Amino acid sequence: MPARSTPTPPKKAAAAETRTTELVAWAEELHVDVEPGHTAGTVRVRTYITEEQVSAQVPVEYEEAVITRERVDPAAAARMTPPEAASPDEFRVALKAQRAVVRKRLVPVERLTVHVRTVSDTVTVHETCRTEHFDIADFPMKPDLGSQVRRENSPG
Questions:
Q1: 3-class DSSP state for residue 27?
Q2: Under a CB-based contact definition with an 8 Å cutoff, are residues 32 and 126 in contact?
Q3: For residue 122, what pLDDT is reported?
Q4: Which candidate, 48, 3, 7, places its Cα nearest to that of 154?
Q5: Please, what is the end-to-end C-alpha distance for the chain in angstroms?
Q6: How many angstroms separate the CA atoms of 25 and 130, rounded?
Q7: For a Cys staple, 97 with which of 62, 106, 148, 149, CB 3.0–4.6 Å?
Q8: How far apart are CA 94 and CA 65, in angstroms?
Q9: What is the three-class DSSP state of 79?
Q10: What is the pTM assigned to this prediction?
């Protein structure tokens, strides 16, 4: 008779082999930094010119001719030497006068200094971050072991 194999008894649940499968859920985390050197704006300073009429009183001196005519008395006429002949004559007297001289020069009237300072402030950044979640479906708390039995036909 052929030797029969004896079936091995099922292992107890405490000694059952365990299998572990892990899944990791990931999430985007917001990290905000600052970068230096970004140009946020400029300050433009330009000069422009206006014109205005300016008047000034300046004292000046000038010469003017004052003509006095008088008769020569006979005693003074006797002491004068007459010219050789009477002829028309002309003479000129130069009259002098001061005149105003206008000069312009540049003088400083205002100084502008641009100071750049660093100011601290808080900026609120809005961004959407995604998070991965687990959705567990069809998880029986206790399996129905009766419906899990595999039946084999025994050799006859």
A1: strand
A2: no
A3: 94
A4: 7
A5: 15
A6: 11
A7: 62
A8: 9
A9: helix
A10: 0.43
Q: What is the pLDDT of residue 14?
A: 57
Residue 6, both tokens: 């004896």
Whose tokens are 């002098």? That residue is 96
For residue range 71-107, what is the model confidence (pLDDT) as tens digits? 999 998 889 888 888 888 888 999 999 999 999 999 9
Residues recorded for the chain: 156
Could you give the CA distance from residue 14 to residue 82 in angstroms, rounded to a whole number? 168
Across the strands, what pairs with 27?
A: 131
Which two tokens mark 95? 């009259």
DSSP for the chain, written as a single string? -PPPPPPPPPPPGGG-----------B--------TT------------------------B--------PPPHHHHHHSPPPSS-----------B---------------------------------B------S--SS--GGGG----PPP-
The Cα 92–Cα 58 span in angstroms is 29
Helix (H, G, I), strand (E, B) or coil at 97: strand
User: Which two three-digit tokens encode residue 25?
Assistant: 């859920």
